[in-house]
Amino acid sequence: MKSVALPLVALIAFAGYTVSVMLQAEQSLLDFGISLMSRPDTAQVVIDLYLLATLAGIWMYRDARKRGRSGLSVVPYLLVTAIFVSVGPLLYLVVRGLTKPDHGV
């Protein structure tokens, strides 16, 4: 359970903050993303986040395979990552920490 504490706290805090912001937003998530990509300075940050998200996705896939799980088992986490970048890997870490390790990992 100790390995779950930090990602669980981060997941709850960040997901709560995300929901709060989305409820107060004056534009849709898609419109917000388009506006971020329309300027080089903010586009750089978005590209950087998605590069990190891609690396996290690769890690989640490899970790699942190493634990004897199907590569398809990470698809829900990848979909969440594609929309809410940090939430997908945090959720993966929480679920991973709550499940028994496979193959002695």
From TrEMBL:
One Pfam match: DUF2834
Alphabetically ordered keywords of this record: Membrane, Transmembrane, Transmembrane helix
Superkingdom as given in the UniProt entry: Bacteria
Transmembrane parts of this sequence: 44-62, 74-95
Record InterPro entries: DUF2834 (IPR021362)
Protein name: DUF2834 domain-containing protein
